[in-house]
Design brief:
By secondary structure, the chain is of the alpha/beta class. The strands form three sheets. A four-stranded parallel beta sheet has the order 5-4-9-10. Strands 1-2-3 form a three-stranded antiparallel beta sheet, with helices on one face. It starts with a strand and ends with a helix.
């Protein structure tokens, strides 16, 4: 069993070789505790309702009541989130799920691609998965639309594309695309690839780079430059890596219709109101999802700059991670009923 540690903010994250079970800040080398273990269990092997962010508070309330003093999980009140037959299979004859049983059940369901993510990157996704209740209703709806599209169109081994679009392709779109690629690998669908684009490209902002590096993403200048947009700002090309093997991409500011972008059958995520208004129709997109976020640029130069870029990164990360979790459960549940 792999054991690694990394920092998120002021807390330590213990990774116990199973991805989401490590998804909370814990004392260095400590256990994440029964609540996070069982939340991971429901999100990993439970019903589709367990991954719907609209149900996240209800799920957490049900878990709080169902976890006993010894940390084991009873089935009381969990029927909406963990089916009785799945519960019984994990629990065995004593009708309760202890820490080892929860850990084994989630370990058995961890996708190989999650294990290929850079450790700190995977740890951050673990953490985001514990806070799906922080999403606003418009972003929950966007997440549901994206999950439905993924569940209907994803085929293992076959590429599936999405473009994240904002105005300058310097902040939100790059944060969203990178978190999208990480989330796809985290949920076992690495063939889903996100690119970024803008309506009026500028340059990959250094603050965006810092926000991604803060969660363990590796970003390296290539020494090359892409064509400049207005106002003729230097537009260097960077290599972004979020995991082993082919989990990397080149990032720079470019138009959403750039020659390297997908041309048909992709999802278009409009993450700023200006781009949303400027592009009522995205040529070639099979689904267009409006999901605007406030531009962290408004905090540039303020004492809150880093925190606000991290906030936007995590807001977008939760939305896309939620969509991936929902799509995975929808597909798995559908396959069980065939």
């Amino acid at each position: 069993m792999r054991l690694a540690r990394g920092r998120i903010g002021a807390g330590w994250v213990a990774v116990v070789g199973i991805g989401i079970l490590a998804g909370a800040q814990a004392p260095r080398g400590g256990d994440v505790g029964p609540f996070v273990r069982h939340l991971a269990l429901c999100q990993g092997v439970g019903t589709a309702a367990a991954t719907d962010p609209a149900n996240d508070q209800k799920l957490k309330a049900a878990l709080a009541k169902a976890i006993g003093k010894d940390g084991s999980l009873a089935p009381t009140g969990l029927g909406d989130f963990l089916s009785p037959d799945v519960f019984a299979k994990i629990a065995g004859g004593d009708n309760k799920i202890d820490a080892n049983e929860a850990r084994s059940a989630v370990e058995a369901n961890v996708p190989a691609s999650r294990q290929k993510l850079l450790p700190a990157v995977a740890e951050h996704l673990d953490f985001l998965a514990t806070g799906l209740d922080q999403m606003s209703e418009p972003h929950r709806e966007a997440s549901r639309k994206l999950s439905t599209w993924i569940a209907a169109n994803y085929e293992p081994g076959k590429p599936l594309k999405a473009i994240v679009v904002c105005t300058g392709n310097s902040r939100r779109s790059i944060l969203g695309a990178t978190l999208g690629n990480i989330s796809a690998a985290y949920c076992g669908m690495p063939e889903i690839r996100f690119t970024s684009g803008g309506t009026a490209p500028t340059a990959f902002n250094p603050r965006t780079i810092a926000a991604l590096k803060a969660i363990g993403v590796e970003i390296t200048p290539t020494g090359q430059e892409a064509p400049r947009g207005e106002p003729q700002t230097a537009n260097p090309i960077s290599e972004i890596r979020w995991g082993e093997g082919d989990m990397h991409a080149q990032e720079f500011s470019k138009k959403y219709t750039d020659a390297g972008q997908p041309k048909a059958g992709f999802a278009a995520l409009m993450v700023c109101s200006e781009a949303d208004a400027a592009c009522p129709f995205v040529p070639g997109a099979s689904v267009r999802i409006s999901t605007p976020y406030l531009d962290p640029k408004i905090f540039d130069g303020s004492p809150y700059e880093s925190a606000k870029y991290a906030e936007r990164r995590d807001d977008m990360g939760r939305m896309i991670l939620s969509a991936m979790l929902q799509a995975r459960r929808l597909r798995e549940n559908a396959s069980r009923t065939r």
